[in-house]
């Protein structure tokens, strides 16, 4: 990235937040996805910083922000975001968010619609679909896999490659490494009581969301991800859904220029 970013930190009541900042103009707050930190937005910011004031924070427990030993929840992340916006005295913002960040952005917009001018969500989390619980159960099992069975799988991997049975095993082992690298994401998604997670899901609240919303979703993503985006689009009053052909969950990596144009058009239309 050729753009010179300002890296900053601020001490908030819930902990220290780290963020990247560049540009001038209408304020865009970028909330990163489940298995990422704020740096995932840099390719997109490169296309937007000349017209917008871009902020890309790391959420509480992620990246270079503080990782306090506390009970994590979506509402805790919403409060962390509120403290951040208050501390920087940002009166009106657009929230641009991916997956887990989308859940937090929509939850924040429900609480503070006067500050949020609009929301752009890429493949958001935060609503329950048919395959939702099954997928979370699989992730919970994978991250909780005891060391001995895990080591056995690692030992058997070369044999599986010889027998050409390795693809599923390699994907599972790779996914487990990803999960272990983002413990806060695991806590938020599936390492809490089911009743607590359910209480923070948004399908019953989206009807109350009055801010303009743009949802961008790859058509080749998982059926579960596509269903979540469609639920947001159906239930939020001012939501528009864009489905992009030939794309899965790699929109930011593959199409940053196209996504930037969608965001620019959305903001200018408000």
From TrEMBL:
Domain AB hydrolase-1: 26-253
InterPro entries assigned to the protein according to its UniProt record, in alphabetical order: AB_hydrolase_1 (IPR000073), AB_hydrolase_fold (IPR029058), AB_hydrolase_sf (IPR050266), Epox_hydrolase-like (IPR000639)
Protein origin, superkingdom: Bacteria
Single GO MF annotation: hydrolase activity
Gene3D superfamilies in UniProt: alpha/beta hydrolase
Short name of one Pfam family: Abhydrolase_1
Alphabetical UniProt keywords: Hydrolase
Keyword Methyltransferase in annotation: no
TM ranges: none
Protein name: Alpha/beta hydrolase
Protein species of origin: Limnofasciculus baicalensis BBK-W-15
Phylogenetic classification of the source organism: Bacteria, Bacillati, Cyanobacteriota, Cyanophyceae, Coleofasciculales
């Amino acid at each position: 990235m050729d753009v010179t970013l300002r890296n900053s930190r601020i001490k908030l009541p819930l902990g220290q937040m780290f963020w990247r900042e560049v540009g001038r103009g209408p304020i865009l707050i970028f909330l990163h996805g489940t298995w990422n930190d704020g740096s995932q937005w840099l390719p997109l910011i490169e296309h937007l910083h000349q017209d917008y004031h871009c902020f890309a924070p790391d959420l509480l427990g992620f990246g270079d922000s503080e990782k306090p030993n506390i009970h994590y929840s979506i509402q805790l992340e919403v409060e962390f975001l509120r403290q951040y916006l208050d501390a920087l005295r940002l009166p009106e913002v657009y929230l641009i968010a991916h997956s887990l960040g989308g859940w937090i952005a929509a939850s924040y917009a429900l609480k503070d619609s006067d500050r949020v001018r609009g929301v752009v969500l890429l493949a958001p989390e935060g609503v329950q679909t048919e395959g939702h619980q099954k997928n979370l159960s699989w992730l919970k099992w994978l991250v909780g896999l005891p060391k001995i069975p895990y080591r056995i799988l690692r030992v058997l991997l070369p044999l599986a490659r010889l027998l050409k049975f390795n693809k599923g095993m390699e994907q599972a082992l790779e996914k487990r490494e990803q999960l272990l690298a983002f413990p806060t994401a695991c806590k938020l998604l599936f390492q809490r009581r089911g009743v607590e997670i359910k209480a923070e899901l948004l399908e019953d609240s989206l009807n109350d969301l009055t801010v303009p919303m743009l949802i961008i979703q790859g058509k080749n993503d998982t059926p579960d991800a596509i269903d979540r985006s469609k639920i947001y689009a159906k239930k939020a009053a001012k939501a528009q859904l864009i489905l992009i052909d030939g794309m899965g969950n790699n929109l930011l990596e593959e199409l940053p220029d196209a996504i930037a144009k969608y965001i620019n058009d959305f903001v200018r239309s408000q």
